[in-house]
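Predict the 3D structure for this chain.
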Amino acid sequence: MSAPRGILVLEDGLVLDGRPVAATGTAIGEMVFTTGMSGYQEAVTDPSYAGQLLCFAAPMIGNYGVGDGAWESDRVWPRAVVMARAGNAPGTGGPVGWCDWLREHGVVALDDLDTRRLVRRLRDNGSMRGGVSTELGAEELLAQVREAPQMDGQDLSVAAAGPRRTLGTDGPRVVAIDCGMKNSIASGLLRAGCRLEVVPAGVSAAEVLALSPDGLFISNGPGDPAATTQVTGTIRELMGQLPVFGICLGHQLLAHALGMRTEKLPFGHRGANHPVRRVEDDVVEVTVQNHGYAVVADGARDGVEVTRVSLFDHSVEGLAVPDLNALSVQYHPEASPGPHDARYMFTRFVESLA
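Done. Predicted structure below.
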């Protein structure tokens, strides 16, 4: 008797089969891929993957276990995970096997899947809706995929935000608007010497000011930045009153607050080896990225500076508005894991609050 198989379908009709290695069931969402070779636990606990199905492009995932030290939030966010080969043994990353851990958290996952073909399809045709199932046939799953909503137009920030919380006791007070903030971002800010009042997306400018902050931070998170209008409005009201620093989605929302726009990238930037050029001195930083939208530089108002540019596709990777004491970067200075080229950004922001 042959082992049971699962399937993956894309909305364009591609069907791939794989071996179920975690929970059983059906998951539908936006199909995306990451080129990161490590950090699989950090990746799937990053709220920026809300509403998505995640393909790991690396040939083997899960080969060093799972543990308590690599959580980026309190849950797993991708609706499904697909891999070429999945490990399931404890190791230096923790005492639990990767597949057992995914099963425990109810995540549908397949390995023995042609991830090379899948990634090439997404690179050629762009990110698209997909489905992963251990129970449905291809035709039924494809019909459900084609009825699912697109990522465009979805504000997922409130659903991805954690609870209100206070972190740290010393230094300038920073209010962090949590749109799906990674734990390691909070740790990076704390190490830089501030204390944090973390408030969930949906907070008003008046509520922020009532906390008597010295600065404002806007976090990463999932969804379409053009649809995340409530957070954008809060930033617009606070710019000029407080120093502002945004990362990833926070970078995109700052751009919208400045009257700029964003556009969907063909297949996004997700991985730990993305080169970014600093415009000020032509230094190249190797960065960690996880985003599907990018800021468009056309139409920027006077005083807005593009400070960083992707060397992969020349998209906008950083903004600064000196007269408003606002700055942002598209990539993740905290890495977690990955290169630490950009960790200084946290210190630069906190020192500007003194």
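The first helix runs from residue 40 to 44.
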